Amino acid sequence: MNTATFKIEGMHCDGCAANIQSLLERKAGVQKAGASFKEGEARILYDSNAVTEEQLVTAIENSGYRVANRNRG
Ligand SMILES: [Cu+2]
Known about the structure:
Blueprint: E1 2-9, H1 14-25, E2 30-36, E3 41-46, H2 53-61, E4 66-72
Antiparallel strand pairs: 1-3, 1-4, 2-3
The structure holds copper (II) ion.
């Protein structure tokens, strides 16, 4: 399992965070995801054999948000 923390730009309410959380949770290979509007970030626990970090970023950005920064762990 891998963990990633993304700084996300473009969220403007808790609904945006819930939206990001559910789109991440729908991705194959994602075991757990959490997103916070207040902190402006998402934390993801995923299996890198099933989904890449790049694919997670793309899923978020295709929904109209921007991943400004990424950290592993
Ligand atoms: Cu919103």
